[in-house]
Amino acid sequence: MFELAELRSFWVYLSASPLLGLTLTLCAYAVAQAMYARCKFSALANPVAIAIALVCAVLWLSGMSYERYFAGAQFVHFLLGPATVALAVPLVRQLPRLRRAFLPVTLALVCGSVTAIVSAVCIVVALGGTAELARSAGPKSATTPIAMAVSERLGGLPSLTAVLVIGTGIFGAVTARFLFGWMKIHSHEVRGFALGVASHGIGTARAFQVSAEMGAFAGLGMGLNGVLTALLAPGLIPLVLRWLGV
Fold this sequence. Notes:
This protein is mostly helical. It has helices spanning 2-15, 19-38, 47-62, 66-86, 88-93, 95-100, 102-126, 131-137, 144-154, 158-182, 188-210, 212-244.
């Protein structure tokens, strides 16, 4: 009974504090990591997807608004910036290899970025989506801040773009291993770069779980694709929409 009373007092304190969102986020990710380890680090048990599901379940069951949750969780959101910049450290260690692979990396980047934008717009239109939805989906393979800014500039829905970006990252992190195996791609350089271009930060996090080399190339792919998407999407998406007659 004493433990239940202690727990109740702790909940009352947290529920009246912005720390609730932060505590919920960290606890959800800790549980997701434990489940990920329990599943022997299977790609199907992606910790980001599990943590999102746990947070959504708690918000739904407790009736807590997203705004109230984010008042505490914004501290984690703030740390995304420094964490992204920190990806440059392993990247610098791979600079000699990057210089030798400059041409194939550049060609792969352009092909990957254009394919991601054009295919997203075409799929949305083919499924009967509006031009607004297509503008929201076009930059989905870039990292979240860039994708939301591009979507807003083109007249899309930034909040929908953020959801699509997260979904794209989780899908890539879960399926990449099987896809690379089916295509018999074993190089960590190629795997990492493709994962970063297609699945941004979530794919990069997955790559670092495999090896530092794969993570460095994933970070490179994520960063370069973010810049290229910001440059290409404003011209390419309206062009594809006009071509499709939308």
